[in-house]
Specification:
The protein is an alpha+beta fold and about 375 residues long. The protein has two domains: about 180 residues, no CATH class; about 170 residues, no CATH class. The chain has nine helices and 17 strands.
Amino acid sequence: MQFLSAIAGALLLALPAGAAPKAETTISGPFTHQNLSIYFVHGASAPGPVPLILQEALEAGAVEVIETGAVNELKIKNNGDAPVFIQSGEIVKGGRQDRVVTASFLLPPRSGEVPLAAFCVEHGRWSARGNENAQHFASSAEALPSREAKLAMKAPLATEATPPAGSASNERRHQANVSVEQTASPVSETGERQRKVWEEVARTQNKLADGIKESVLDSASNTSLQLSLENDKLQAMRAPYIAALEKLATAEDDIVGYVFAVNGRINSGDIYPSNALFRKMWGKLLAASVTEAIGESAASANAPTPPDAAGIKDFLATTEKPKPKNQAINGLTEQEVRDADVSLFVGARTAKGEWIHRNYLVK
C-alpha cells in the first residue's frame, strides 16, 4: 500500500549504514479499554537527536509563547540550544485567552520570535485570568480532544467565504465579545474556521458533561476548554483508561505512532519519525484520546466491534492516496494536505524535506 511503501522507503533512507531495516511497517492491536481501542504503528526510527516537546520546553524555561493581541496569531521564541517540536492541536494556557496550535513544525535553537498560528479555545475572555500573565502562556499540558475541531482547523472548506481586507475586523469583533455569526459582513477563511472551532469546543464541553454526569464549565472562565479538561471528575474518569493503556506504548522500542477508535469506529492517528519522539508525545496523545472516548461514552451501547490491524492499514493507505497540496508554514515547515473522501491527511516536513509529523483524521 502507498502509505506502507512510502514510510518504509523514508525509514530505510534514514537508517545509518549497516543497520538492518524492518521488512515492513506493521500495526499491532487493538488494545481496548471500555470504548477506546488503541493501535500502534511499528517501524524503524530516523537517526539523530530527539527534539524537546513544547510542554517540557516551557517547563524548562527554554521557550516563550507570547501574546500578540491578535486572536489567530501568537509568537513563539526558542531561547535554548535544542530544537523544539510543536504539534498541531496542542493547547497553550494563559495569555488573553487559551489557544490551540494549528500546524506542526520544528522550532530551531535560538530562533528569535516566530509566528505561531492559533485558534481561540476560550470564547469571550480578553484579559488576564486570575494571577496568570496576560502576555505569556505558561503551559501546554493538554491536546485538543475533538476530531471535529481538528477538522475545522485543517480540512478544506466546502464553501470558502469571500475574505475581507485582512482579518483584523474579525479580531475586533472577538475582542468585543461579539460572535462572528452576529455580523452581517463576510468573514475570512480564518474567521469561518474560528467560528467552527468555537462550536466544537462548546459541543465537546457538552459531551463531556454527558460523559461524567456533571458540568465541566469552570467559574473562572466557562468557555475555556483547558479549564474543562482540568475538571477533577473528568481527571478521575480518565485514570482507569490511562492505567490500562499507557504502559503499552513503552513495551516495544519500534513504536512510531498510533491510531485510535472510539465506540468501534476509527477516529484518527499520529505518526512520528522516531520512537523517542512518539514516547514524549504519548501521554498528551493518550489523554486526549481518552477524553474523546469519555465524551462519546453515552453512545457506546451496541457499538460495532473495533476494526482489526488490517483495517487500520487500509485507513492509513486510503488517507494518503489523494494528490497533495503543499503550503509553507512560518518559513520553517512545508505542510502537506491530502483530502480523501472519508478522511484527511495533514503532514509536516522541515525545509530540508524531513518528515516530523503525520496526522490522519476520519471525516
